[in-house]
Design goal:
- The protein is mostly beta strands.
- It has one domain (about 5-135).
- About 0% of the residues lie in helices and about 35% in strands.
- It is built from no helices and ten strands.
- The protein has strands at about 5, 10-20, 25-30, 35, 45-50, 55-60, 70-75, 85-90, 105-110, 130-135.
- The strands form three sheets. The protein has a five-stranded antiparallel beta sheet, with no helix packed on it.
- A hairpin with a 6-residue loop joins strand 6 (about 55-60) and strand 7.
- The two termini are about 25 Å apart.
């Protein structure tokens, strides 16, 4: 699993992004059928909830911006996501029994959706977007967005310096 948002009180899963056992990337949100793209190593991805267009999307690129792939699924529940008291899990296996074999350089959540194939994600917040949180994993779970949404780390997650 790359990430999952889950509310343990209501036992409601909001979204999950994972590599399947076949090496494909799968994204599910709000009970929509999972979106699947071909698996890659060293990739950039954008998983979006777009209530204006009643859809969820998963887009992937190679690190150099080539190799674009996308998948889209219509959804009926377009109400606001309320993730109060939710847990964000990063880089764990199903049931969080041990670390997954993935490395995440940075991950962030923005308020605002982009058009499909608007280009791969960059460090800059896109025009019209608002950064809700950003984790760069520089040896800690600090929120680099300025929103103060710092992570509480469990266990001893490994950190690795990347370029």
């Amino acid at each position: 699993m790359i990430f999952e948002t889950f509310n343990p009180t209501t036992e409601r899963e909001y979204g999950k992004l994972l590599f399947t056992s076949s090496g494909y990337l799968s994204f599910a949100l709000r009970g929509a059928s999972p979106l699947v793209t071909d698996g890659k190593t060293d990739l950039l991805f954008r998983a979006q909830f777009d209530p204006t267009r009643s859809r969820v999307t998963l887009e992937t690129w190679n690190l150099d911006g080539t190799g674009y792939r996308s998948a889209t699924e219509a959804i009926s529940d377009v109400s606001n996501l309320n993730m109060a008291a939710s847990r964000l899990t990063l880089g764990a296996t199903a049931y969080n029994l041990f670390y997954a074999r993935v490395k995440v350089d940075w991950i962030r959540m923005l308020d605002g959706a982009l058009a499909l194939n608007a280009g791969p994600p960059t460090a800059a917040v896109p025009a019209g977007g608002v950064s809700l949180w950003r984790y760069e994993f520089d040896g800690n779970g600090s929120d680099a967005s300025g929103s103060g949404m710092n992570l509480t780390l469990f266990g001893s997650p490994p950190f690795e310096n990347t370029p």
